[in-house]
Amino acid sequence: MNLLNIIGEIEKTDPEVYQRLDTRRDAMKQFKKIGSRIALASLPLALGSMFNKAYSQSGNALVLDVLNYALTLEYLEAEFYTKGSAAAGLVPAGAATGAIATIRDHENAHVAFLKTAITAVGGAAAVVAKPTFDFTAGGAFGDVFTNYATFLAVAQTFEDTGVRAYKGRAAEIVMGGDYLTAALNIHSVEARHASHIRQMRKNAGHAPTLKPWITGKETGIGAAVQASYNGEEVTTQAGVNIVNINGFAISAAAASEAFDEPLSKAQVLAIVGPFIK
Amino acid sequence: MPTEILSGKATPDINTKVENVSRRNFLRYAGATTAGGMLLVAACKKDDNDMNNGGVDLGSGDTGILNYAYALEQLEAAFYTQVVLTPYSGITDNEKALMTDIRDHEIAHREFFKTALSTSAIPGLEVDFSTIDFTSRASVLGTAKAFEDLGVSAYNGAGRLITNPDYLVLAGKIVSVEARHAALIRDLISNGTFADNTVVDANGLDKSRTPAEVLAIAASYVKTKINASRLPS
Fold first, then answer.
1. Global pTM value
2. Cα(A30)–Cα(A244) distance, rounded to whole angstroms?
3. pLDDT reading at A102 higher than 70
4. Considering only CB atoms, which chain A residues are within 8 Å of B158?
5. Quick one: DSSP state of residue A213?
6. pLDDT tens digits, B121-158
7. Is A209 strand, coil or helix?
């Protein structure tokens, strides 16, 4: 049984087999190393496991699902900031207008980038359509484009939720190579946005004690957005209690701030649902 | 500059305290990876000579990546510990509160990795902050900005090297907090630069860096030599 021949055969029907396996280079190296020693009978099992990983974890369907999920959230943010920027008299001139424009441009760039990535994987037809949004969330934020405080509160919720949403699906594309890196590179930009929006709200006097990071499950906004913050209060990570860890005076507040928590797809869709018509 | 602030020296009796913490599950997968990783070393040692300098060995596989993160958190925690100990001249109450928060976050990260890695953890690193003027706001915030942006790019770049999904999520939980720090520090230096085009590209993407790139930048602040030759790539 010649392993390289087997992969060569697969290459005839899937020219990208080496590329797929290359994203799992470690597995491949181990495979080569143990291949010469392993009992012949167990080879099909080893092979099957290797290809399962290569095809299921970074498989097109999963990658497309995660990218379209991300795109839907970016559509929401992009249209929100585009409308907010265009609303006369909403955002004060100067630094605030500059910051909102910066964020708007990033969100629109994310939309374009994700569309390109999705098209590359699954063709143009695989790109999910932009939903019709209702940024008042059925009236809960009726003055979102006329009241600066409401606008920033919704912005904060979108950014903090976005950060949690990307995190919530990262595990599904573990070892996902370039797609994972791209998702991470968007994820940290959303966190930068969240930090700035929270500072804007503090400095504008909308939430005088608000910090750039999330303390406990405090919203700084109110019950309407509590679902975006529930679960952020945890102070234990991988079984390790962070409060006063190893004798250092780390408060529960600091312990919760030091780690942002993920949200599942179902949780995010429940949060975003009211904003989609 | 005192280096006692690093985890090893000014720390209460860590080794006895962490014994009670259940972390066997956390490391179970890393242990398996390490075994595999050691096989790899024999197979491809010749590729890895560039980072093999005989220094503190980060290890291989996921354990190596966690130690890499632990090394960076040691650097950040030591820096902010000093910032809070000797505040720069003209520091406001608001800035002092923010620096104290960041210090606590970085200590939490550092001690988390130390505890989780247990006997696989690298020792405390010795830092070199001789180029930093801790009395100067510009020097301190400039260094903080460099460290935070570096940390964000390090976690972003390391994500693809992690094989255990739980560790990937943990790294994700930390990197967004580092990004919150980075944005805040940048805004303290110049409001509105939280995500300017020096860190975010035309596609709206943050930077990611490989461990080799990150460690080369960090090396000017770390006296201890770090050997990253067995990290996955």
1. 0.82
2. 41
3. yes
4. none
5. S
6. 999 999 999 999 999 999 999 999 999 999 999 999 99
7. coil
Task: Please say if the pLDDT value at position A182 is more than 90.
Answer: yes
Which of B65, B148, B180, B186 to mutate to test binding with chain A, by most A CBs within 10 Å of its CB? Answer: B180
The CB density around residue A196, as the number of other CB atoms within 10 Å, is 28
pLDDT surpassing 60 at residue B84: yes
At B159, give phi and psi (nearest 5°). Answer: -50, -45
With an 8 Å Cβ cutoff, are B177 and A189 in contact? no
User: Residue A260: which of B109, B157, B173 has the nearest Cβ?
Assistant: B173
Instruction: Record the tokens describing residue B107, joined without a space.
Output: 């200590």
Q: Residues B177-223: pLDDT tens digits?
A: 999 999 999 999 999 999 999 999 999 999 999 999 999 999 999 99
CB contact under 8 A, A238 and B181: no
Q: The tokens 């980072």 sit on which residue?
A: B51
Chain A: give the shortest CA distance to residue B59, in Å: 15
DSSP letter for each residue of B164-187: -HHHHHHHHHHHHHHHHHHHHHHH
Contact criterion met (CB < 8 Å) for B21 and A112: no
Alpha-carbon distance B216 to B213, whole Å? 5
Q: Which residues in chain A are contacts of B12 at CB distance < 8 A?
A: 246-248
Q: Which residue has the tokens 């975006």?
A: A228
Q: B175 and A199: CB-CB below 8 Å?
A: no
Q: What local confidence, expressed as pLDDT, does residue A15 receive? A: 53
